UniProtKB/TrEMBL annotation:
SUPFAM superfamilies assigned: OMPA-like (SSF56925)
Lineage, top ranks: Bacteria, Pseudomonadati, Bacteroidota, Cytophagia, Cytophagales
InterPro entries: OMP/PagP_B-barrel
Name of this chain's protein: Outer membrane protein beta-barrel domain-containing protein
Highest taxon above the source species: Bacteria
């Protein structure tokens, strides 16, 4: 039976967690429909931090930040090349539910600023390149499994910069 307040599980009030991961399944299409050519989209690199704020029933509400980077390149048949880079900075909040002493399940929402830069390299006249920044929402579910008391692995499914993230997690 689960306790009425989660005070001795894998994520408790006052815990701080750092995730370092890679993400796949970019939600950006980088104008692929208009560009054509041969695409190459890199996995996203992401770093997130979260702190347990207060208990809610059997779980804990946490808040934190996420930073991510992803790039894409399109080699065009004409010999030109488009390069894209995305940087995401987001605030996130999540509800953590105690499943097992070493497994932290959570779901949450986020909002962030997505900065995208496009550049063109080629021998033909340069099409319009530039950059943009837009507010972007996020929703996610995930889990952390602690192999040791303060070191584990995590995975997240969601909608922000990528659809799937996996990596290492540390608790302090």
């Amino acid at each position: 039976m689960l306790p009425t307040t989660f005070t001795n599980g894998p994520f408790v009030v006052g815990n701080q967690v750092l995730n370092l991961g890679i993400g796949v399944g970019s939600r950006g299409n980088y104008d692929a429909d208009n560009i054509g050519g041969s695409p190459s989209v890199s996995p996203a690199i992401n770093l997130s931090y979260e702190r347990g704020l207060f208990a809610i029933g059997p779980g804990v509400l946490g808040a934190g930040v996420l930073a991510g980077y992803q790039g894409a390149t399109y080699n065009l048949n004409s010999g030109g090349k488009w390069k894209y880079s995305d940087v995401l900075l987001a605030l996130r909040g999540a509800f953590h539910y105690p499943v097992l002493p070493e497994f932290d399940a959570y779901a949450g929402l986020g909002v962030g600023l997505l900065y995208t830069k496009a550049s063109y390299e080629g021998s033909t006249a340069s099409p319009e390149a530039g950059s943009s920044a837009k507010l972007t929402p996020g929703i996610f579910v995930g889990g952390r499994y602690f192999l040791l008391e303060n070191l584990g692995v995590f995975t997240e499914l969601g909608y922000d910069q990528t659809y799937l993230k996996v990596g290492l997690t540390g608790k302090f």
